[in-house]
Amino acid sequence: MVKLILMNSYEYQEYITSAIEGYAKEKVLSGNWNEEESISKAKDEYTKLLPKGEKTKNNFLYTILKEDKAIGVIWLAQKSEEEGFIYDINILKEYQGFGYSKEAMKQIESVGKKLGMIKIGLHVFGHNKVARGLYEKLGYQTTNVLMEKEI
């Protein structure tokens, strides 16, 4: 069983660096951004979403622990009184495939319920079939699909 603990400032600094790099890479892979602009655009987005870092109001950034070892992160934002949004869930590569994401998702849903949320949304890149499969198994439904084709 995994445990969620709120990030401290040190954990946040480690997280934000890797999150920006990962997000920039995903945006390039999905064809949204070119590589040259990706890091600066990712930094801008994170700065807008988390202007006060891990202390940004209505944002809950957790370290995911397995037997007191940090194995990943999950970030839930409260968008309104009743709606939340999972901006990020990331399990370290060596811990993937053991069901830890599923456990963390169920726990973050409990956190959301305690905060009064009745709905939680998330975004998943179209090319991330593993994550899409997990979210569907957990009952998340597709609400929008964007498609494009290079011609």
TrEMBL record:
<keyword id="KW-0808">Transferase</keyword>
<feature type="domain" description="N-acetyltransferase">
    <location>
        <begin position="18"/>
        <end position="151"/>
    </location>
</feature>
<dbReference type="InterPro" id="IPR052829">
    <property type="entry name" value="N-acetyltransferase_domain"/>
</dbReference>
<protein>
    <submittedName>
        <fullName>GNAT family N-acetyltransferase</fullName>
    </submittedName>
</protein>
<dbReference type="GO" id="GO:0016747">
    <property type="term" value="F:acyltransferase activity, transferring groups other than amino-acyl groups"/>
</dbReference>
<dbReference type="Pfam" id="PF00583">
    <property type="entry name" value="Acetyltransf_1"/>
</dbReference>
<dbReference type="InterPro" id="IPR000182">
    <property type="entry name" value="GNAT_dom"/>
</dbReference>
<dbReference type="InterPro" id="IPR016181">
    <property type="entry name" value="Acyl_CoA_acyltransferase"/>
</dbReference>
